[in-house]
Write a structure and sequence with these properties.
The chain has 102 residues and is α+β, with helices and mostly antiparallel strands. Helix content is 33%, strand content 38%. The longest helix has 13 residues, at 10-22. It is elongated and about 45 Å long.
Length: 102
């Protein structure tokens, strides 16, 4: 299993989550609203309200998930961090695997 982190504008969170789940590229997407991001972009200090998406998927779905996410994300340079899940509740892990089968 993999956990993918991606921040996006709040108004895009539901649409991104729905597309990933409908395509069976993610078993579940949690949208954590109210994130305040501070960063430098194009030489300028920025502060933006964002929603962080916690995307649960399986390793063999990462290429297709990344491709779709980069296609539909409104940012020029979206955050896309992939974290391995080494352990978890076995029935949940099996569910994630099954939910991401095409």
């Amino acid at each position: 299993m993999r956990l993918v982190l991606c921040s996006c504008p709040p108004e895009h969170a539901d649409g991104i989550a729905q597309r990933l789940v409908e395509a069976r590229l993610a078993a579940c997407v949690n949208a954590l609203p109210g994130v305040q991001s501070t960063y430098v972009w194009e030489g300028r200090l920025c502060r933006e309200a964002e929603t962080t998406l916690l995307i649960k998927t399986w390793e063999d779905r990462l290429d297709d998930l990344s491709e779709l996410l980069l296609e539909i994300h409104p940012y020029d340079l979206p955050e896309l961090l992939i974290l391995p899940v080494h352990e978890g509740h076995e029935p949940y892990l099996r569910w994630v695997f099954g939910a991401t089968r095409p």
